[in-house]
Amino acid sequence: MLSRTPTHRSRPTPRRTARRAPAGRTAALPVEPAWTFFVRLAIAALLGLLLTALAASRLAAQTQAVETPTRAAVAAHATQPDPTLGPEEVVVSVLEALARNDQPTKDRGIEVTFSFASPANRAMIGPLDRFGDLVREEVYRPLLYHSHAVRGTMKVVGDRAQQRVIVTSVSGQRVVYTFTLSRQSDGPFKGCWMTDGVTREPPSALGTPRYASAAFGRIAVGE
């Protein structure tokens, strides 16, 4: 006899489907606290103030550099003794005046040079007219309208000072002069540096080591 084997029917596996989010809803983004906005605003304002202050300081420095003249520029325009002028500035004033002797008027440079002559110097050379004749002599003529002047180191000992200068005359001649100055202790020029004399050195002075090299417009003068 044939027997029937019981058969088992498999149940169908249920299908899983992804759930869809309801229409109209989106993923929520994180929201920053309100105070962070004010922090950023404050930082931006601070940076703006710093940049403004930096620009203003640079502008002020540039303006001061343009408007404030150097001591050398002030000395170049000095026309009479002043306690604020040092011995080197007096020499600069004299050299600039003689280089532009006829500016703004004829022999104005000689007048300025005479104004810086000390009372003791004036007692020896006499009045302005005689001083002018002395400057025009061969010894001092290279100083008039000279094209270039190189100043050595100013040596100051107490109220005395000395400086050597190489002058290139308008004709190209190079001449060495020694300026001797003193600070006045009394009288109307008290406290002022003035010239006691200008000595022309022999041509051999140009061959000595102290005049052999120049740097930055100045000569290293040795002992």
Give a topology summary.
Blueprint: H1 34-67, H2 71-76, H3 87-99, H4 108-115, H5 119-125, H6 128-135, E1 148-152, E2 155-157, E3 160-168, E4 174-183, E5 193-200, E6 214-215, E7 218-219
Parallel strand pairs: 1-7
Antiparallel strand pairs: 1-3, 2-3, 3-4, 4-5, 6-7
Helix pairs in contact: 3-4
Can you put this structure into words, describing what you see?
The chain is α+β, with helices and mostly antiparallel strands and 223 residues long. It has a domain at 71-219: Nuclear Transport Factor 2, Chain: A, CATH 3.10.450.50. It has helices at residues 34-67, 71-76, 87-99, 108-115, 119-125, 128-135, and strands at 148-152, 155-157, 160-168, 174-183, 193-200, 214-215, 218-219. Strands 1, 2, 3, 4, 5, 6 and 7 form a seven-stranded mixed sheet that branches. β2 (155-157) and β3 (160-168) form a beta hairpin.
